[in-house]
Write a structure and sequence with these properties.
alpha/beta, 8-stranded parallel beta sheet, TIM Barrel
Length: about 220
């Protein structure tokens, strides 16, 4: 029951301009179905194989987004499972997606805004150039940027990172590149989503705030 209440609460509390992605790594079919029944329309998974198992009961009810790192050798499988990949961080990965996609495929560019070694993503300085190169690919549609801010005990510490992402986002949007719509800025997780929304996020990715503490990986 808490999942239903939490989902409805966030859907009601978030501004109309902000979409909710449920981060469901390690969550059961029953848990995900509860959230979808409460109004969730986008499910985010971290692993291609786990998402493939869950896809049959998600498809037709909600979109399925990849929010974890994608290896090039798993692109073909990923395209059959996901409606969007939020974590493209190289021209080579985008080229692989374009090569295997049967129709124009929607992606976000992942930016390692904090320059953290343990996180994937292009650097902020590389982002505009990368988007420009990807915009020339025939089967790719770039809809925006995605990032995870560094962790701080006080979420206020994330603010300058989200602000930097908004600056990057608007700068690329102003270029008016072909195949680049720049209408999604995917920022903010359970601990820092409020700051992200204040700084211009249009999409938040929430897991523990909806489901509670995570189960061991399935």
């Amino acid at each position: 029951m808490a999942i239903v209440e939490n989902t409805k609460s966030f859907l009601n509390a978030l501004p109309p301009s902000v979409s909710l992605v449920l981060a469901t790594k390690g969550r059961t079919a029953a848990e995900i179905n509860e959230a979808i029944g409460a109004g969730a329309t986008i499910i985010g998974e971290n692993y291609v194989q786990e998402a493939k198992r869950k896809a049959p009961f998600i498809r037709g009810k909600a979109e399925l987004h990849l929010i974890g790192h994608l290896q090039k050798n798993k692109v073909r499988r990923a395209l059959k499972v996901f409606d969007m990949v939020q974590t493209v961080d190289s021209l080579e990965l985008a080229q692989e997606i374009s090569r295997h996609a049967e129709k124009p495929y929607t992606i976000l560019i992942q930016v390692n805004v904090g320059g953290e070694r343990q996180k994937h993503g292009c650097t902020p300085d590389e982002t505009a150039g990368l988007v420009g190169k990807i915009s020339a690919l025939p089967n790719i549609r770039v809809r925006g940027l995605m990032a995870m801010a560094p962790h701080f005990d006080d979420p206020e510490g994330t603010r300058p990172y989200f602000r930097e992402m908004k600056r990057l986002f608007e700068g690329i949007k102003a270029k008016g590149l072909p195949n680049v719509s720049m209408d999604i800025l995917s920022l903010g997780m359970s601990d820092d989503y409020k700051i992200a929304v204040e700084e211009g996020s249009t999409m938040v990715r929430l897991g523990s705030a909806i489901f509670g503490s995570r189960h061991p990986r399935q």
